[in-house]
Write a structure and sequence with these properties.
By secondary structure, the chain is of the alpha/beta class. It has helices spanning 23-26, 28-37, 42-51, 69-74, 88-101, 137-150, 169-175, and strands at residues 2-4, 59-63, 80-85, 106-110, 123-129, 151-163, 195-203, 216-217. The chain has seven helices and eight strands. Residues 175-218 are annotated as: Disordered.
Length: 218
């Protein structure tokens, strides 16, 4: 099943997620080689989600499914998957893979973090892997708020993405040679590593819509 998102009605002030998707993710040749280069560890991720409460009655919303590695793995384990992506090339590959797998419980939607409008029961699981980093930081915050609004109370957000850890004065001095380096404001720094990392949050809000950021526990 497929559906068009509302990207065509995107207001001018809203970030163009297609333009920010990365040229490689819009290139059909790159997409054709994607599964050879990228292993999403989909089976492991499905087992983790099942330990967190995923059942055959669950509704899953996936952002940035790409060619569908996780989509194809999770679909037999739940009642419905809504796969949301902005890349026409990725969506074409996803639809082809779904047809080959003969899965009928996946709805493919051409939209993004900022334009997808969830319809129907709240999601039990929202999943995203290596997609959120394409948004600038301001829009990441908007996206995370929108993801929270889609989850039922007790629902789970599983997020994989790129994390970079560095000393801020170092890149600042490189960007502006000869400029004085500002004194950074002391802040607690979480232990991070360069590369990909996965985090899981559970919606502990009593409300099914627009939970406040303080209602998230990890």
């Amino acid at each position: 099943m497929t559906a068009d998102g509302d990207a065509g009605r995107r207001p001018g002030w809203l970030l163009d997620e297609v333009a920010n998707a990365g040229r490689e993710n819009l290139d059909r040749d790159h997409v054709a080689r994607y599964d050879v280069k990228e292993n999403a560890r989909a089976s492991d991720e499905v087992r983790l989600c099942q330990r967190l409460g995923l059942t055959r009655d669950s509704v899953v919303v996936e952002f940035g499914p790409g060619t569908g590695q996780f989509t194809l793995a999770v679909a037999p384990a739940c009642t419905r998957v809504i796969a949301v992506d902005v890349s026409p090339a990725m969506l074409a590959a996803l639809r082809s893979n779904l047809a080959h797998a003969r899965l009928s419980n996946v709805l493919v939607v051409q939209a993004g973090f900022l334009t997808y409008e969830h319809d129907g029961p709240p999601a039990d699981l929202v999943y995203s892997r290596y997609a959120l980093h394409h948004l600038p930081d301001f829009w990441k915050a908007i996206a995370l708020s929108r993801l929270a609004s889609m989850l039922r109370p007790g629902g789970v957000l599983r997020l994989w993405d790129v994390v970079y850890s560095f000393d801020p004065p170092t890149p600042v001095s490189g960007w502006r040679p000869g400029a004085p380096v500002p004194t950074p404001v002391p802040m607690p720094v979480p232990a991070t590593r360069t590369g990909g990392t996965g985090r899981t949050w559970r919606n502990t809000s009593a409300m099914s819509t627009r939970p406040s950021p303080g209602c998230w526990s990890r």
